[in-house]
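ESCALATION

Customer reports they have been waiting on this structure for their group meeting. Please prioritize. Original submission:
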Amino acid sequence: MPSSDAPTRALPTLHEFFSPGGILANSPLPYEYRSGQYEMAKAVERALSERRHLIVEAGTGTGKTLAYLLPALRTGQRVIVSTGTKALQDQLFFRDVPFLETLLGELRVCYMKGRGNYLCRRKLYALRDQPVLSGLSEIDEYQQIAEWERTTETGDRAELSGLPESSALWHKLDARSEACLGSTCPDYRHCFITEMRRRAMESDLIIVNHHLFFADAAVREMAGAAPDAGVLPEAAAVIFDEAHELEEVASNYFGRSLSNVRFEDFARDADVLLRGKEGSTQVHLLTQQLRERARLFFAALPYESDGRHPFSNREEFLESSGDLYLAVTTSLKLLEAELDHLSDTAEAPGLEARAAALRADLTYMLESKAANMVFWLERRGAPTNLNQRVAPRSGPRTTFMQATPIDVSEILNKLVWDQLPTAVLTSATLTVQGGFEHLRKRLGLGDASHGARELVVPSHFRYEKQALLYLPPQMPDPRSPEFLEAAALTIERILRITHGRAFCLFTSYSQMRALYERLLPVLDYPILLHGTAPRKALLEEFRVTPNAVLFGTSSFWQGVDVQGEALSCVIIDRLPFAVPSDPVVQARMKAIEEAGGRAFTEYQVPEAVLTLKQGFGRLIRSLEDRGVLVLLDPRVRTQRYGQTFLQSLPPYRVTQTITDVEAFFSQAEPRN
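Update from on-call: job pushed to the front of the queue and completed.
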């Protein structure tokens, strides 16, 4: 479908753009012809023209963003690009698209985030007229936001550089859909969400992230595909970059989630939005009752400690605490009835719908018999001093009741793949031992004979020359008590050879903390610890600090790009198998076993392979980069499944000899 009535400008062919001596070669970009980039661009254009799905693993350095952006623009139809991380979303909109515009002229492109990133003017004005602010910090933040609202064109909180990431006030003012009045809102025409939708309708290319895409798909499904549901317009195709994250993100949004905070937010919004209006006194009494009953209910939920735990004893919980459950549902029914009486008040219908949604989700969590759902609980502590060794047990805690699909393949087939003329899935890490079978099965894309086409584009990098994979000999099993001491000694020796300049990536916070505390007194290099500052700040400090070492866990395994000598070594403590006691992992493994499969080889190993590829992928980010990869886990050598990992990695040169590591760095001593 064309994105607007404006005529489509003729864009260069792929050959004119990508070929040696072509437009890209004559651009200001440092250029080297990449056959893989051109091959991928042709495959994407073919998929778009034939309305077929396509899966592409494009190794780091391929230049995949340009390889799909130009074919998408050449269709003359609206295309959505969905990314896994905000970093890539920013790169596309603020770097890649402006670069293309220098070569192709002005393009119709917009950038969309989740509604929680945008200001709701109605909420802002309600707080101005009837302020309910907590402390001087919220008053200062409110004044800052109110002043910014008068000049901002987008309402995107990213423009508010002085607003803390943890701002509690922003949560009271954002444009989340559950509090939205839609077209009945008095500020609808001046709404930032309305403006974002308008820009999207006028764009050829819409850049979103997976969270927004699947949140939108879930909203449409809940609304029965109503035409005004969701914020994303229809598109001729969707390109999923960082597609290795799709199963996890889709699982979150096609499941259900309910927390004590959601009850508190609803009660607060009802009090603020209806204050001073007819009937508000009775509503306030009922919200107070709801608060008290919800607190008792969530306090009674079974949990042993913070973290994720199966909620497999729902029937027993109802038998012992059913009165608390019924008390909450009764309060919600009373609120729904009272709000229905106030239907002439603009805010009441939206609040009534929220109360009904809370009651429906609560009922589902405790009474649903859905076979494809795993029900679980999560308890999180309030933010604490990140340098503290253990978070205190006292203080506010958030409790979540979760229902997550065990298998999203059929859901994705029905709600995504069958609905899209073309879907392109791409990432640097999609294959296991060179094949897409695992991805196809988990995402419901069928086999190669009748499903999506597939393509593997080798990296442009010369891994056998640029990288060395060191597998230390005689390391103990990572599950043994001796592993920690051996890991500390090995890491210390390697970091002295590399002069720091390393990421040490861990599979758990406890392991990271234990090794950090052992190595901090014996290393002379600056050590940065995940959790002591925002990730972006830690990365920037790492880049500008000579010989720095960064200790990180899961969020540093992907979406991190540090080029040059600052990062010359990546050390990984153990094969990144998912925790088998995690309720979702547990349920998926059980489902595979009950279907006659082998959960370890069919699920745990492939998932760990893709994660390891992501972690090692942090090292070589350009043709000039070189460095050493280290895996401390001996199982990659001693267990049969270790070959699956080694055969799935790029063609690194592999050694078990520490002198090879020393020789590798002696060839290029650091400049410091």
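Sent to customer with the following note: The first strand starts at residue 54 and ends at 58.
Escalation resolved.
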